[in-house]
Specification:
single chain, 8 strands, about 260 residues, globular, TIM Barrel, alpha/beta
């Protein structure tokens, strides 16, 4: 059964969207996120994790149990293959990394869009998980068209080429941009830049330009308190928290509290 892409519905209606990241290889994770009823999608950060095709299928089934669309963020080198594998599993959004110029945008677009004259993509009909309940090429096409297409702006050269990238992104119907401060500073030879005030100039440029070109920016944050500044800049799409860091923080809180208590015995 093809899962309806509720994330596409919410995005298309102009509403803000909210996701959360997970890196765990536990297939229960999407179901746990979805059962909260508080998130529009879960983003599997495959770029920082270990996985295989079968695990992607398990994630997609888990998300479907909890009515939670899934996004995947992939490592640049293999993202063409794995993006199509994720679509075959039932993921509903793809975040492409390491965009450097407009030709990268075109390559990513072709990777996930239909191989039809009207669309200019390279994806044919693949009888993977969404087609298990029956073969309907029209339904398959509608599902493929509903997949959200996101790109990372995270390289120094990408900011240099920002207008050309965003022009191509607008032309190809890119749904959102995502700013990446860590890789941006790293690509400039300044890995410490992400933690300093100087990063805001570049970040705000990407946000402003994205809005100007009609490609909504999405921002990753670690706390609710961090959101207001971005809302004031015009951001309406957020992904908050990472399961690994949430676990670490809560584990530290519990452990420190108990150690303090036990030290009095």
């Amino acid at each position: 059964m093809i899962m309806h892409n509720t994330l596409r519905d919410k995005f298309a209606s102009g509403q803000p969207t909210l996701g959360t990241h997970f890196l765990s290889c536990d297939p229960d994770m999407p179901e746990i996120i979805g059962d909260s009823g508080l998130f529009d999608y879960g983003e599997y950060c495959a770029e920082y994790s270990t996985f295989d095709m079968q695990l992607l299928y398990h994630f997609a089934r888990s998300g479907q149990c909890a009515n939670l669309p899934l996004m995947i963020k992939l490592d640049q080198k293999g993202q063409g293959f794995w993006a199509q594998a994720a679509l075959g599993a039932g993921f509903k959004a793809i975040l492409f990394t390491d965009i450097r110029n407009e030709s990268d945008v075109e390559t990513c677009y072709q990777t996930i869009r239909p191989d039809m004259p009207a669309h200019g993509g390279l994806v044919g009909v693949k009888l993977r998980r969404p087609a298990l309940g029956g073969y309907d090429a029209t339904g398959y096409l509608d599902d493929l068209k509903s997949v959200l297409f996101l790109i990372m702006i995270e390289k120094d050269i990408a900011v240099d080429n920002l207008d050309a990238i965003l022009s191509k992104a607008k032309e190809r119907g890119t749904d959102m941009t995502q700013w990446g401060p860590s890789d941006f500073g790293f690509s400039r030879g300044q890995p410490e830049l992400e933690n300093g005030p100087e990063i805001r100039t570049f970040e705000e440029l990407v946000i402003r330009k994205s809005i100007e070109y009609g490609v909504p920016p999405r921002i990753e944050i670690g706390s609710v308190e961090a959101a207001q500044r971005y809302i004031d800049l015009g951001v309406r799409h957020f992904c908050i928290g990472w399961d690994r860091f949430i676990y670490q923080a809560n584990l530290a809180h519990l452990g420190e509290g108990m150690q303090k208590l036990l030290s009095t015995l």
